[in-house]
Amino acid sequence: xxxxxxxxxxxxxxxxxxxxxxxxxxxxxxxxxxxxxxxxxxxxxxxxxxxxxxxxxxxxxxxxxxxxxxxxxxxxxxxxxxxxxxxxxxxxxxxxxxxxxxxxxxxxxxxxxxxxxxxxxxxxxxxxxxxxxxxxxxxxxxxxxxxxxxxxxxxxxxxxxxxxxxxxxxxxxxxxxxxxxxxxxxxxxxxxxxxxxxxxxxxxxxxxxxxxxxxxxxxxxxxxxxxxxxxxxxxxxxxxxxxxxxxxxxxxxxxx
Length: 256
What we know:
This protein is of the alpha/beta class.
């Protein structure tokens, strides 16, 4: 992949899972990384780890459900490093998994606001910063295999992830001619804290049976595997890829 020395990458949800792995992958390629999430201890620890390895990173505590936090986050990136080249909108929640008839309006709003509205707000601020700098850039939104596959009791989560498909393709149509590529990565079953919660709820035996029957690779993916996909889409090696959906899911969606 192309060299990322001195480029600046912003990653939301960077305190764990795919976000953490993506921040590490950018730093390993020489990019200066801005870490954003709600958990200060985890952000500080990762920032220190990247710096110990010779990388360059900073962090800012951010709740992406708050527009003012997003504005501060992007301002922190541009004020600290003078530019923004890559942005990864990864922060999200599963919300309450419950039958649609039992889900409250507040629970629906929390999930959709955190997963979909926040991505719109992040993308808007990130694109403005990139356009102002005049260097173009690349934005990757992180969806899910549930961006096109529903499951019982997941109405709010699934709807929020479906919305990212339309948001990404529309943003690409508007921004690509101005030098900003926008793509969507839709991971399948990845070994993250969210995955561990689902495994605990369903039980290991049922979960392993599901993997064997539905996932071609017969295993869950690792955050580092998704991180490599994200970094590729940001890189110059993906210079003609925009508005697309990449689905690193071990073949899961092909068996539905």
